[in-house]
Amino acid sequence: MPAKPKMIHNSPHKYERIERKSDHVVYKCMLPGCPHFLPYEELAIGRISLCWGCGAEVELDREMVMHNHRKRPKCQKCIDERKERILALRTIPMEDELEEEESYEE
Question: Rounded distance, CA 101 to CA 39, Å?
Fold first, then answer.
């Protein structure tokens, strides 16, 4: 049986954090046809990955790999944009709050 041809791409890998067992984590490239993976999370430190939000290149640092525990790495710009969206949603009054304010005014 012939071996499957490996897909070779010229861009950085697009890593995703996968927990194999409760104490074992691997990082696998999720680009179609790419068989690349890192068997230990320590090997991901210093690697370049594509951001899952915008596709920009992001370097996986120790904080991101060992302490952050994000499943899909994102660049700082995408993280900041998400925080801004969450803050904006928190400042919008809910319908219940508006009804309560109207009842107080009556």
Answer: 56
Residues 6+ apart with CB under 8 A from 28: 15, 16, 18, 36, 37, 38
Distance CA 14, CA 26 (A): 13
Which DSSP symbol is given to 18? E
* Tens-digit pLDDT profile for residues 86-106: 888 888 776 665 566 555 555
Q: Where are the domains of the chain?
A: 15-105
Backbone angles phi, psi at 64, to 5 degrees: -65, -40
Note the pLDDT tens digit of each residue in 5-38. 565 677 899 999 988 777 788 899 999 989 999 9
